[in-house]
Amino acid sequence: MKKALALSLIIPAYNEEEHLIACLDSVAAQTRLPDEVIVVDNNSTDRTVEIAKSYPFVRVITARNQGIVYARDAGFNAAQHELIGRIDSDSILPPDWVEYVMRFYTQNDPNKVCLTGGGRHYNTPLPHISQWILSVLAFRVNQVVLGHHFLFGSNMVIPKAVWSQIKSEICVRNDIHEDIDIAIHAHRAGAKIVYRRHFIVGVKLRRVFQDHDKLWATLMLWPQSLRVHNKKMWFTGFIGAVLLYLLTPLIYPLKGLQLLRIKLFR
Predict the structure, then answer these.
(1) Integer angstrom CA distances of residue 33 from 8, 59, 79, 115, 160
(2) Higher pLDDT, residue 27 or 1
């Protein structure tokens, strides 16, 4: 008899007491629970660990090196099951997220196919607009530039077999988007990346609430990620980043206009 597939869900976390409860509540409300949930504490100084440990289905591990890539890698390496899901600590899953994943892998190779989907910003007045912008700029533009989809860090699944194959080759650095990097290495290893536009999680728009310099620096990680991997069309990442910056008023009108005013007229 064929063994049923199992899913490990990895949640990197650094000082996430503000968001982790809603995230883990959405995990607890799944129509089918993940077979394993790992919260990776990345040196938090707030109540992140206390909150994570209050959920009986959560296992907490620690990543001492600071940075999302280190926390992600620690969680992926600790995962015990064939499928490794990855979300962020501010992700809010629809109740059938796990069920959708498991149904997807009954029709796709659980050793060679990665799954990803988009996000809807739950803290903006116009979430559908921001979702559309994310879909076009993040997924469609990257698909053209990369020749395949990237794996959105807030909403992705990678087979453990693929991770085992690429984990010694990925770029361990904090100056690029680690979800673009892992997608590039997965593709080079022969994995197929499937993007399903209706596979959506709630995510929090945080970057707009940073000051203008931090927002700009974050956006510039996009072209940097493409240049590091010798993508000839890396400049499209720069153009996309500029467009995202200029479209900020549509995503969150008041804060976006404030940022643009500071940037353009200081």
Answers:
(1) 10, 14, 15, 18, 19
(2) 27
